Amino acid sequence: MSLNPNHETIESPLLDRLRPACPDCEEPITLESLTCRHCGFEGEFRHGIPSLVPESGARHPSRDDASSPRLLETDVLRSLATDTEEGSIRDATATVLEGHENRTDALDAIYDVNREAWLSLLADEITGRCLDVGAGFGRRAHILAELGEPVVAVDSNLSKLRVATERDDYDNADRLLPIHTTEDRLPFGPESFDTIVADFTGSSMTEVRTRLARLSEYLDDEGTIVFTADGWPRQTGVTDLLGMDAPGSEATLSLTAGTPSAYRSMATEAGFETVSLYSLFPTASRPLFVFDIEDDRAVETVAEFVLAERGQLAGMGKPLVSLGNRMDLLRRWYPSVLAVCTNGAEEVRSSPEFGEPLLVSGRTRSVVLDIGETGVDRVWKYPNRPAHAPFTERENAVLSSLHATDEPIVETLPEGVGAASPLGEARAEDPVAGSSLEDDLSSDLRSYERVLQLGFDWLVEFQQTFRGPTVTRSPAEVRDDLRFEPTGIEPPAIDEPVTTFFTPVHGDYLTGNIHVADDEVTTVIDWEYGALEASPIIDAGFLVLETAMQVFGGIEDGFRTAFCEDNEYARLTRSTIRSYCQALGIPTRTFELYLPSVYLHRLELDRQFDAVSTYTELVEIRSRAVEFVFDNLDDVSLE
């Protein structure tokens, strides 16, 4: 798309596939001139974007989140837009948002593709001409543009649309058409779109009914509307009373407001023949789980995940969940709902057609558990956007290479195959046996010892099987290994060569990814950070650092307690590491120097594949962890 810098006209092949209409009289117009010959309406171009409202004419302000309708002030938004146009979105957010009180929430609103995790289930439904209502900074619109074309990104905030148009972390701007207008002044005729996506969170039931009816007029006869909305707890103000929402959220006292039956009835009234409802749990802005509201087994599986965090309460809670599910009580308590409304006779189904899918969202990809009669039948892993597909590609490549060796230890690696998806290469795996080693981890010394023993026993066998020859790294090479220029990480002074070797690595070797049964490792899952040749300390260091962090509460307390102090845990940690180094023939100095390498490995891969973490505070947290370890290495002695 080419927007005229003089703001006088627009030339875009996307317009050939749309039917522009005057927002006042609905007569055909041309977006090249934004003028209606019938009624005299005149729009204008602002910063190259077609604008159909006066400067103060927005009647439906876009919301990044129902609880935070105004994350950034007007002048901040304008500065963000200008810096994005003149440079890059990464530099713009780093500069403009530095020190802002809402920086974290604003970064999530701009970058967090997890909010669209539901696309992994419904990607095949997003086709053709697409309208994104309330596009904001364009995060959702750009992902939609990977699936449909053209995508019209509508928002009442011009500064946000400027960001959406110029952001350089996506390469599909030629599929996106931004239009500055309000929802009730869309410059299109009836049946202009095959797919419409809208955010209705923060709207009352009356407003949702009105908005749904209005948008359905622009939908093709066989098209699909997808919208998010507040469930019963938010609609009735329960979450507000419990302190879960910000002050000022609109609520209604209707007992049926926000229930699945209410939204289903509303969609039927709007003329839709088929309505599929999903829960975004716990909220639409933080959807850790996505599942069909009608899928009882998915509901109970989510409950098990949630209750697992409650320790002994889990045993009491599971029967109550089952009872509430059978009595249809749980559906009333979903805080956020995703509705998929179509005019087709067939119910919307994901591809492949799952039995009862449960989506678990992740930073770079989502995992879909296909739940059968007796448990999980299949595990599917989908990238959250095409730019993140290389993570799954790495996993497929690393595991395929290791499985091809037929070494005995590969029996502990996941069995699976690569698969195609609309968002890039995916992976399908068989479910694994055993339970997560994380489930057994506690502050008890015996638990700590068991976790380290099982984790390191497997790692020693794995690295002994696949490692390369011993090598000597020069001080300059070691400094290069331990440097990360984007955040200025520099290792301490290194004056002597280091003895090490290269080996395949997992890259995310922590207790949650290690499954055990009968005191043996059954499977090590999730190899998206894997590599066929890297430092062995990436996995060894990560296991001990992450275990200490979980037990002692954060990197600083975990590091000092497990590495620097004189206590039972530190003595056990040092003994475990010495045994590991001895088994693999490397000095403990290698382990000490390369201890933060796992964070560096993740930082490098995330940056290479444009992971969301590199735009948010997570990159700073990981960088600080590396620097903290470097700064305190003098207090570590593994001898």
Describe the model.
The chain is α+β, with helices and mostly antiparallel strands and 639 residues long. It has 3 domains: 109-354, 3-Layer(aba) Sandwich (Rossmann fold), CATH 3.40.50; 375-429, no CATH class; 435-635, Aminoglycoside 3'-phosphotransferase, Chain: A, domain 2 (Alpha-Beta Complex), CATH 3.90.1200. It contains 21 helices and 24 strands. It has a 13-stranded mixed beta sheet with strand order 7-6-5-8-9-12-10-11-13-14-15-17-16, with helices on both faces. Strands 18-22-23 form a 3-stranded antiparallel beta sheet, covered by helices on one side. The protein starts with a strand and ends in an 8-residue tail after the last helix. Mean pLDDT is 85; it is low at 1-10, 57-68, 238-253 and 310-329.
Q: What is the structure about, briefly put?
A:
The chain has 639 residues and is of the alpha+beta class.
- Major β-sheet profile: 13 strands, mixed
The number of helical segments is 21
Shape: globular
Number of domains: 3
What share of the residues lie within helices? Answer: 25-40%
Architecture of the largest domain in CATH? 3-Layer(aba) Sandwich
CATH topology of the largest domain: Rossmann fold
- Rg of Cα set: 27 Å
Mean pLDDT: 85
What percent of residues are in strands? Answer: 15-25%
Question: What's the total number of strands?
Answer: 24
Order of strands in the sheet with most strands: 7-6-5-8-9-12-10-11-13-14-15-17-16
- CATH evolutionary superfamily of the largest domain: Vaccinia Virus protein VP39
Which structural class matches the secondary elements? Answer: alpha+beta
Poorly predicted regions are: 1-10, 57-68, 238-253, 310-329
- Give the CA-CA distance, first to last residue: 63 Å
Question: CATH class of the largest domain, please?
Answer: Alpha Beta
